[in-house]
Amino acid sequence: MTLHTTTHDAAQTHALGQRIGALLRAGDVVVLDGDLGTGKTVLAKGIAVALGIDEPVVSPTFTVVREYDAPTPLVHVDVYRLDHLQELHDLGFDDLVGGEAVTLVEWGDRVSAALPRDRLRVLLEPGEGDDDRVVSIDAAGTAWGERRDALVAAVGG
Amino acid sequence: MLLLALDTSTAQVSVAFGDGGAVLGSVQLGGGRRHAEQLAPAIEYLRDECGVRLDHLAAIAVGTGPGLFTGLRVGVTTAKVMAQALRIPVVGVPSLDLVAYPLRHSERTVVAVLDARRREVFAARYQPVPGGVQRVSDYAVHVPTELVAELMADVGESPHGLLLAGDGVARFPDEFAALEHAEVAGPEYASPSVAALVALATARAEREEFEQPADVRPLYLRRSDAEIAWERQAIGREPAVGDTGRPVSGE
Q: Nearest CB to B228: which of A37, A84, A93?
């Protein structure tokens, strides 16, 4: 199942992140993909707001992993600086995923082999207008089966 | 023979001093990813309460996993550093063995299952034998449903049924409930037993099955040699010289 929608500015991408975030549960993995500047971190910020995180969420490109405390904590990962999958294992990534937190992985497609099969994949691509983003969302695994209708409603358009 | 035993392969930190295979004292701390903060103070507390001197230790025993990466690193590193400083050997025992060994008096095939996060489990199977258990499978990482399917397919190899133990079982109750002829060991068997570590490591140390500190390796079942594929997608401008091949945009 792939869902598509188009956002027309960063605020709409943020709002989409909030609607997706409202569906997330402990242990979920969300892969955010799309080129630099397409709004992966904007979407991540929306998800963080929905999880009740009030700290500012910044892209963890240089720290690779940032953890945010909340009733459902958020682990925000950006693998952009990594060259080998082993580096991800060496960060203790496996301990963080699928536990009590929601894990967001920017550029997650590139480390697919290190991720659980149950995951939500969000791809952001440039649209026709300068600020338009075509957002494609795939839900894989049993954990998403029962949330399918809620996801369709959240994504809308 | 005086031993220090420690296992940090799960969310629990377990430490014991053992003498002649029996536990002099032990500490178990549950509750999370605080191995680095808890382990050294726990050793110090036990040393004082048991009245032992570290320079009387014959060896250090450590659970080598498979298990949670961060915890394993803390435990194995602590064991190696202490052994090196004290000039004594290390006895590494896989942590799944420490889940299975306390159930050696059952007739059933014991399946030790530890939560591997990422919605996976580490597991191994054991047959009870006189005086212990014998491992009859590899140490492996599984998706729970696949482990269950494998156990169902091999049901003929376990005439007395299965006994499931370890924190991975409680983590995936629905998946493991599908197994018929399987009993689940109680929560007191959920973590690797530091008493089992004392017993098994003492027996090995008496047979001089030591390792030098530098040779001890945790069982990481998820090692990967794969490079991350960063193809060049020149968008807006060409990749700079020396670029490692990540997509480049016009930002």
A: A84
Confidence of residue A43 (pLDDT cuts 50, 70, 90): very high
Helix crossing, A40-50 with A10-21: angle to 10°? Answer: 40
**How many residues appear in chain A?**
157
CA distance B61 to B45: 18
How many CA atoms lie within 13 Å of B61's alpha carbon, on the beta-carbon side? 35
Residues of B whose CB is below 8 A from A94:
68-69, 116-118, 222
Residue B232 CA neighbour count, 13 Å, CB half: 11
Measured in angstroms, the CA of B90 and the nearest CA of chain A are apart by 23
Nearby residues of A63 by Cβ (< 8 Å), 6 or more positions away? none
> How confident is the model over B178-206, as a mean pLDDT?
95
Size of interface A-B (CB pairs under 8 A): 77
**Chain A: closest CA distance from residue B194 (Å):** 22
Residue reference for tokens 């939500």: A120
pTM to 2 decimal places: 0.83
